[in-house]
Design brief:
The protein is of the alpha+beta class. It contains 4 helices and 6 strands, in the order αββββαββαα. It starts with a helix and ends with a helix.
């Protein structure tokens, strides 16, 4: 295997991590449908420490517009409720005996536009990461070409393969973004 193929092979897992990160971030963007992912990483300050909500309660979505949070301990209710009010999700939690219920209202046009903007920012952040890894690989390929470790014609093959890889990952970003756009606009 040529050296350039090893260099390209080395950056592929990094690009995959960027796509995984984008996937996790997109789950957190609210659509018209309730999902435990919307609230599970909200930071709750409890007993002087900060915890993600998922460590303090069971979270489920029994209906399309409802999230139910069942704290492991009664002392968590107040801090969880406070954290939910302070989140940027524009939700109003309701304490109902042993659970906290969140009923998701319909999305306003203005809020949808904000979500679409956030989606675009997440996509661009992922593209920047992909470009960074492409540049890192390209710099290494050029360096090895100068040292005579990679032939000149292999350098151009490497450039084409690198671009194919970047195009492949950019297509994944685009497809993920389109799916999320449709969910937001539903």
């Amino acid at each position: 295997m040529s050296d350039y193929k090893e260099i390209i092979k080395k950056i592929k897992p990094e690009m995959e991590r960027a796509i995984d990160f984008l996937s996790r971030e997109l789950i957190k963007i609210r659509t018209g449908r309730a999902s435990p992912f919307l609230v599970e990483d909200i930071v709750v300050e409890c007993f002087g420490q900060k915890f993600p909500l998922k460590q303090l309660a069971a979270i489920s979505s029994p209906e399309p517009k409802q999230i139910v949070i069942q704290p492991w301990d009664k002392s968590y209710f107040e801090p969880i409720e406070k954290a939910l009010f302070q989140s940027n999700l524009q939700i109003s939690p309701v304490v109902d005996k042993d659970v906290i219920r969140i009923f998701l209202p319909a999305l306003s046009d203005e809020y949808r536009q904000n979500l679409l903007r956030a989606l675009s920012e997440k996509e661009e952040e992922c593209r920047r990461s992909i470009r960074k890894w492409r540049q890192k690989a390209w710099d290494e390929i050029q360096d090895k070409t100068k040292k005579g470790e990679i032939r000149e014609d292999d350098k151009f093959k490497a450039k084409n393969e690198l671009q194919k890889l970047v195009d492949e990952y950019n297509k994944k970003i685009e497809e993920m973004g389109e799916r999320k756009r449709k969910e937001i606009l539903e």
